[in-house]
């Protein structure tokens, strides 16, 4: 199967790392389903890809709602065929001291950042099983590796992504499907900008970045490059791995 004939689904594809990944996969010759809860953002990314000569379709869904995800996946299949590349990027962030996290806040975080990846993966997995080939890339966070103040619920969900990746890789490897995790560090996305502008970090973000071996903020395109590799034919013997795109922050 050539990469030009593959169809990818990128969740959270309307902005930040999802946007960059959608564009990068399209550049590799894949047809891309750009899924986002923000319909206008998804449309804008799909338009950018199509105007550049690629193939993309914007679809709207909450990844925590199975019926919405199933409907979105059917639209993508109808346009481009079976989905054999999945980038589970969509997520939310919240900041609160642990003692102030309520049940609704905890459940929202788990429903989007962990259950959402489970739902989308289950919805598209039959396509990969039928093809005997698939690539699943799940987004975690370097906070799940080193911890993060006022983000216990966020890091717990992202830690679950790492464990889910490893177990899925064991279960699906013999079926021609690889499953890997990317754990971004401090990446300049709209989400990161909101956190910076809202003074959500315990110390100035410049101080955080200055402590990294590569002392700068990362770019979404750098994460997209890692996604493109994991989604490629060349990465066929790589599974159950966690790749940190973080400037060495976890050292």
Describe the structure.
The protein is of the alpha/beta class and 251 residues long. It has one domain (3-242): NAD(P)-binding Rossmann-like Domain (Rossmann fold, 3-Layer(aba) Sandwich), CATH 3.40.50.720. The chain contains nine helices and seven strands, in the order E-H-E-H-E-H-E-H-E-H-H-E-H-H-H-E. The protein has helices at 16-27, 39-51, 66-80, 103-131, 143-146, 152-172, 190-197, 205-210, 220-230, and strands at residues 7-11, 31-36, 55-60, 85-88, 134-139, 177-184, 242-245. Strands 3-2-1-4-5-6-7 form a seven-stranded parallel beta sheet, with helices on both faces. Helix 3 (66-80) runs parallel beside helix 4 (103-131). The longest helix is centred in the middle third of the chain and has 29 residues, at 103-131. The radius of gyration is 17 Å and the shape is globular. The mean pLDDT is 96.
Compact overview of the structure:
This protein is α/β, with parallel strands linked by helices and 251 residues long. The protein has one domain (3-242): Rossmann fold (3-Layer(aba) Sandwich), CATH 3.40.50.720. 47% of the residues lie in helices and 16% in strands.
Low-confidence stretches: none
Proportion of beta-strand residues: 15-25%
Radius of gyration: 17 Å
Summed up, the helix count is 9
**How many runs of DSSP E, i.e. beta strands?**
7
End-to-end Cα distance: 38 Å
Structural class: alpha/beta
- At the fourth CATH level, what is the homologous superfamily? NAD(P)-binding Rossmann-like Domain
Order of helices and strands: EHEHEHEHEHHEHHHE
Structural domain count: 1
CATH architecture: 3-Layer(aba) Sandwich
CATH C-level name: Alpha Beta
Silhouette: globular
């Amino acid at each position: 199967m050539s990469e030009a004939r593959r169809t990818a689904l990128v969740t959270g594809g309307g902005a930040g790392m999802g946007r960059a990944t959608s564009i990068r996969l399209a550049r590799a010759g894949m047809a891309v389903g750009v899924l986002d809860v923000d319909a206008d953002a998804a449309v804008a990314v799909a338009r950018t890809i199509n105007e550049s000569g690629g193939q993309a379709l914007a679809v709207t869904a909450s990844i925590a709602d199975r019926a919405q995800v199933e409907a979105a996946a059917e639209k993508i299949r109808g346009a481009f065929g079976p989905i054999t590349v999945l980038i589970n990027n969509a997520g939310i962030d919240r900041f609160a001291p642990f003692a102030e996290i309520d049940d609704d806040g905890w459940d929202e975080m788990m429903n989007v950042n962990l259950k959402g990846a489970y739902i989308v993966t289950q919805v598209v997995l039959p396509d990969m099983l039928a093809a005997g080939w698939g690539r699943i890339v799940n987004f975690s966070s370097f906070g799940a590796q080193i911890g993060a103040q006022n983000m216990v619920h966020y890091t717990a969900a992202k830690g679950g992504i790492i464990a889910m990746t490893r177990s899925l890789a064991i279960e699906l490897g013999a079926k021609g499907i690889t499953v890997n995790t990317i754990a971004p560090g401090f990446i300049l996305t709209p989400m990161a900008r909101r956190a910076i502008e809202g003074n959500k970090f315990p110390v100035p973000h410049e101080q955080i970045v200055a402590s990294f071996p590569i002392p700068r903020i990362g770019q979404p395109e750098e994460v997209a490059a890692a996604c493109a590799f994991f989604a490629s034919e060349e990465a066929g013997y790589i599974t159950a791995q966690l790749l940190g795109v973080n400037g060495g922050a976890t050292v």
